[in-house]
């Protein structure tokens, strides 16, 4: 599945200072089930985050203070971890924790 | 100092006078760091008697034993009891004519409170027996356990066993003999027990916020304790709240927007209740209390397993983390809150009982009792009983459309209770109101809170102006 | 994939939700303050109008005033500069707005963020003034760190920045300085002051305007604005901001208190405003006042002591005794143990200790 992932607000520093990643996620979760944000986070954690993963994740979700937008829409509106993803979707992660 | 002479083994606190006790108290309050300069690193000798080994190596002190890294067992015990006794005498918590009720949960804090109150009573009894004129009566002590089985059900056999263990603990703390009261929390409804239990469950179910539910239960527990105290002629209620617990309350209250009323909750004395509440363990850390239970084999009972979720759970793990990072953090938090201006009811009210007063005056230190400027009587939230800030009094437009007693009740609560306890939807509000126990209802209606009078005046104005508009 | 036909635009659960304000467009975010689900356009309107209300209700500015915006290039000050210039036009505040930046002299950090501020100067048409540590004090942070190491460098930076902003504001002849402190920052400061036992700061830190008795008052138009909304606003508007941590204090923002606030926000978003409310409502007797203000004998800056803190630190640097002035709290002896501890580089409970803002 082709996805566009964007890291901002300082999170790009955790993945080699690259902000935009066009990725192909070939994750088969349960047969027939759609890819969820929960699956994607685990994938990002293993495949994209190069350092200090604790700045990005806490438990199985993003660290509080990291904003997530799926297709430019706050993931709090789409069920957070349960948000399902489709082909060519875009996901943005922005940290609010860096200096003002 | 008695202890420096090297005769520390014999429970030195019994001979100490209060001045000596203040020294360790100050140190603890200022938060001496475990590796501070004043600790002799070469031998782990007790800082006070300089003879015996410390309970724990100094390096372990940061790991949660408080003064255990600085004192030997006897000095540790003496120091802890000293903090208790200083709190009691400096704030005139207990006078000889008092009958005090100790709230006992089975946990270490209230266990130590019970132990210390007993030791104090025991000593007073010995003095009484030895004295010729017998002019100083000995204060009475009772113990209360609030059974929350209705809310947090435990296996009934285990529960019965816990009650038996507690009975045994209390009966072993004699002489003097202490009465033990066990009351189910449902008994705040004066009707029969099983009915109360169901109503209570329904009441809690009407609260949707997890934290609100926990806090409401806390307020109901206080009502139950007050009820027991009132019905059995007690004059003071002793709680085992320790520094750690109070530090959590400081943060939690701040987070819940209760900054105004916070100062009322964290003083040694809180006499806004019918039976004044006293907190003699306010200066003791939970680690120290646990340590004492360990050292002296004070039996504790795990009778209630209260969940701590939501805001309260988050706050206690935060405070725990801070305390691990800096062992004086809890003290600092409580000290900060202690600098807030207390309320006029945060002192033992003057009584006309000349005899008792005279007796307690002999011991009492005056400096903590500076009278506050006389203020107009406070208004209180009917649910949590916290004093209301004038600017939080409901704007009367908020119940323009809802003049039912339930609606008016909701409007007279503090903003925090309105947010996390009072249902927002009018029909659930009516149901919630109908399930409230009588003391809360009457608190809202009582002239005792000026708030209610104020509300009524507002309503009157509203009605009048409506009439004028209409005609 | 049959559902794809049913749900038209995208297959997200919330994709179809409509804005609760206009009932027309697709909701784009959930407001932490009100839990409303609103679209981008309505968000811009409520976000800006709320700040306008705060400015009007608290009389932050008077017509004709010259206002400096403390600009670090970070998200808060960038959004503040954008929104203030927008509101100034829309509501005829009649303000002369300026950007004021401090160049601490940190290669690889401040030089980059200053580039952002310079772009903002052009984008928003606001004149920019940069004051540098080098010109004010003769030292860059790079040079200071070379001399004293990484310990305590935040103390120097904090003291110097506070004064640098005042001096820059004086050079611009502005009436007031607006800073980008947001609701999360203020809630955090309330907690930190409780944790440190600093009752004097606790009583001051929730004021929306401070320093009215000093040379240049400061105000915080974002006092009630959630950090989440500021970041969302900057993202949706594609505002150009800089978000790299200071190289000399890389983990300063990983504080317990900040983390706690974010955890709280997750389970109860209103907690942030509740903390601020608590901070405003604390019963602090007015007798615990600030130490008497005089002026520094050396540089003339306001100071409660003979010399101001910056001059003491500077004297230490120039005499090669950089420990001078470190670890001494300002005449308040009660929290010496904590102050010592914190100035010794234990940053755990701190977060924005070395942020670009200071209280």
Describe this structure in words.
- Chain C: GO terms for molecular function: ATP binding; nucleotidyltransferase activity; tRNA binding.
- Chain C: It is found in: Cytoplasm.
- Chain C: Its EC number is 2.7.7.-.
- Chain C: Its main location: cytoplasm.
- The complex is a heterotrimer of chains A (100), B (471) and C (359).
- By secondary structure, chain A is mainly beta.
- Chain A has one domain: Beta-grasp domain (Ubiquitin-like (UB roll)), CATH 3.10.20.30.
- Chain A is built from one helix and seven strands, in the order ββαβββββ.
- In chain A, the strands form two sheets. A five-stranded mixed beta sheet of chain A has the order 2-1-7-5-6, with no helix packed on it.
- Chain A is globular, with a radius of gyration of 13 Å.
- Chain B folds into two domains: 300 residues, Rossmann fold; 72 residues, no CATH class.
- A six-stranded mixed beta sheet of chain B has the order 3-2-1-4-6-5, sandwiched between helices.
- In chain B, strand 1, helix 3 and strand 2 form a beta-alpha-beta unit.
- The longest helix of chain B is centred in the N-terminal third of the chain and has 23 residues.
- Chain B is globular, with a radius of gyration of 24 Å.
- In chain B, 48% of the residues are buried.
- Chain C contains 14 helices and ten strands.
- In chain C, helix 3 crosses helix 10 and helix 8 crosses helix 12.
- The chains are: A mainly beta (100), B mainly alpha (471), C alpha/beta (359).
- Chains in contact: A-C, B-C.
Rg of chain C, Cα atoms, Å: 22 Å
**Class per helix and strand makeup of chain C:** alpha/beta
Which CATH class of one domain in chain C is shown?
Answer: Alpha Beta
* Uncertain stretches of chain C: 1-14, 328-359
| Count of β-strands of chain A | 7
Short description:
The complex is a heterotrimer of chains A (100), B (471) and C (359). Chain B has 471 residues and is mainly α. Chain B has helices at 18-30, 73-90, 108-130, 156-172, 193-205, 210-231, 243-255, 259-265, 286-295, 310-325, 329-338, 354-363, 405-411, 415-420, 426-435, 438-445, 450-470; strands at residues 99-103, 140-147, 179-184, 236-238, 269-270, 277-278.
Helix and strand arrangement:
The complex is a heterotrimer of chains A (100), B (471) and C (359).
Chain A: E1 2-8, E2 20-24, H1 37-47, E3 57-58, E4 61-62, E5 66-70, E6 73-74, E7 89-95
Chain B: H1 18-30, H2 73-90, E1 99-103, H3 108-130, E2 140-147, H4 156-172, E3 179-184, H5 193-205, H6 210-231, E4 236-238, H7 243-255, H8 259-265, E5 269-270, E6 277-278, H9 286-295, H10 310-325, H11 329-338, H12 354-363, H13 405-411, H14 415-420, H15 426-435, H16 438-445, H17 450-470
Chain C: H1 3-6, E1 29-30, E2 37-38, H2 40-57, E3 66-70, H3 75-90, E4 96-103, H4 110-124, E5 128-132, H5 133-137, H6 141-148, H7 153-171, E6 176-178, H8 183-196, H9 199-204, E7 209-210, E8 218-219, H10 227-236, H11 256-267, H12 271-281, E9 294-295, E10 302-303, H13 309-318, H14 336-343
Parallel strand pairs in C: 3-4, 3-6, 4-5, 6-8
Antiparallel strand pairs in C: 1-2, 7-8, 9-10
Helix pairs in contact in C: 3-10, 8-12
